[in-house]
Each structure stands twice: as structure tokens, then as C-alpha cells.
Amino acid sequence: MAADRLNGLSMHRNWNRMEAVTGSLPVTGAEIVNYLHGRSRWLRAREWLRGRRYLPARFMDRARPLVVVAYPVRDARAAFQVALAVEQDWLTAPQPGREAYDEILFKAPGLIVLQLRRKNPCGCLGHRHPYVNEQPFAEPHEIFRGTGVGELDIAYTRVASWQPLPLSDIALDTKFLEGTRLEDFRAKQFRLKMLSILLHETHHMVEAEAPETAIRERSIAFYHDALAAYVENAVDTMSLTIDRSFSRME
Hints:
Elements: H1 2-22, H2 29-37, H3 41-50, E1 52-58, E2 66-72, H4 76-92, H5 95-99, H6 102-107, E3 111-117, E4 126-129, E5 149-155, H7 156-161, H8 166-173, H9 179-206, H10 212-249
Parallel strand pairs: 2-3, 3-5
Antiparallel strand pairs: 1-2, 4-5
Helix pairs in contact: 4-9, 9-10
């Protein structure tokens, strides 16, 4: 409960900070959904036939940015994993890692469109885009209330096979030999990789001249610390479960 109150206080301060700078409240996920549904029937039908879908997600401890995942309908599962990473995995990451991105997220465009792809022709994990290409967000609209819009892409099948820290990842992986624990670990690992790339490309948006090495070091550190914290908590939980099981047997 205390953590919930602290998160609520942090969120309230972020909203006040946002209003002080922009003079308006941030765009919400519900508003984006209403905007998308309120467009002409012809536009919505064309989008539907193309299989294009949109899923808003926000960082739960701050008012901005709002992330809108743009994805092909066949990739809905991956899109929901990205939304889960933004809304839940971010909040459970160690505080120092989140604080390292505080100013970056505050300075980022208030609306970030994440184009979810299976692969990029160049083989890259992701890119920030100089212009917004996703049609519903490419032009200003009153619903955005002057909020800046940025766009990036992430190639999620490439991310799934990517090993940011091979030796460290293998060491953590071996703590879960088989079964649902291993499946949970790998699902968490995938989401944290996606989240770290989102943060990485957002950092590029905010500080275009920053060295790639510095940006990469920060995003990799976030990934490593978040995954290590998850493993530590999961192992402690397993140990407690085993201890209780032996107590019952005695």
C-alpha cells in the first residue's frame, strides 16, 4: 500500500510538471482509442482490411509519453507483450534504472508511435524515424492538443534471438532449468529486451547528438539490472516455496 501511495504521488507530480511546461493535460490512451474509432468509416475499413491495429500503453508512474503500438493483426501477441513491458515491467524495474531515464522520458515527444515489425531489411533491432509515417498520427489533430509525436520501429523476431549480454543471460537462464519458471523467465527477458530498445531509441529522439556508446550503455544497464532483479526475486520465491513444502513434510 505504501508503494502504491508513493507511485500515486510520483504520478501526480509528473502530471503537474507536465501541465507547467505545456499548459495542457497529456493525451490519454482512451482519447487515442476514441480518436481512432471516430474517423471516417472508409478510413477505418481500409485500415481493417490492411490488418493494421493500434494499442496504447503508458508508463504507469508518469503522465508522458504515451506509447501507441502500431502492428499487423497477425502480430497481436507480440504487441500485447510490448504493452505489458511498458505498463508493468517498467514499474517493477529497479528505481535507479528508471531514474536514469527520468529526464529523457520527460523531454521525449508526448506521443510515441512504435511500429512493430518482424524483421528489418537491414537486420537492425530498431530505428528512430525522422518523420512520422503512421497515417493516423502523421498530421496534427486537435485530440493531440499540440503534443509532439515521435516514431520508431522495433523488429521483434530479431529481438527474440538477440543476446545483449550472452554470458550474463546464460548465467541467469540456468537458474530456471525447466517448466513454467523457465517459460516465465524467457517471456520476461523478451519484454525487457523490447523495453530497453524502446528506451534506447527514445534516448536517440531526445539527444540526437549523443554518442551511440553512451546510449547503448544506459539501455543495456537498464536491461541487465531489471532482469537480475527479477531473477533474484523469483529465486527467493522458489526458495520460500521449497522451505514451506519441507516444513509441511516434517
